[in-house]
Design a protein that fits this description.
Number of strands: 3
Structural class: alpha+beta
Number of domains: 2
Helix content: 25-40%
Number of helices: 3
Length: about 100
C-alpha cells in the first residue's frame, strides 16, 4: 500500500482532453505514466483489433495497418494465479517472437 501511495503522489493532473469514464485507482498503478505521456508527449493514434483468443489485442498504426507495434495480452496480473491465462499469455509471447521475425499478423 505504501508503494501505491508513492506512485499516486507523482501522478500529474489528467490532460483536459481525456474525457469519458476512466480511473487511476490502485488497480492501475502505471496510469500515471500514461497521464504524463498524454500531457507532455505528442499523441500518435493507433488502431487495435482483437485476436483469435477474444482477449488479446493487436496494435497497429492508424495510417499503415501493416505495421504491428505490439500484441497486448491483458490480464497479466493473473499470470501466476490462473493457469489458463498463463498458457494464453505464453502462447501470445511465442506469437510475438514470430511476428518480430516477420511471420504472422
Amino acid at each position: 500500500m505504501v508503494l501505491y501511495r508513492k506512485i499516486f503522489q507523482k501522478i500529474p493532473d489528467e490532460p483536459s482532453w481525456i474525457t469519458g469514464q476512466y480511473t487511476h485507482d490502485q488497480i492501475e498503478p502505471f496510469a500515471g505514466l500514461f497521464y504524463w505521456l498524454a500531457k507532455y508527449g505528442k499523441p500518435y493514434f493507433l488502431k487495435a483489433s482483437i485476436l483469435w483468443d477474444n482477449v488479446s489485442t493487436k496494435v497497429t498504426g492508424a495510417i499503415d495497418e501493416n505495421i504491428t507495434y505490439c500484441l497486448h495480452s491483458w490480464y497479466s496480473r493473473d499470470y501466476d494465479i490462473n493457469y489458463r491465462e498463463k498458457v494464453r499469455i505464453d502462447f501470445l509471447y511465442e506469437v510475438a517472437k514470430l511476428n518480430k521475425a516477420g511471420f504472422f499478423c
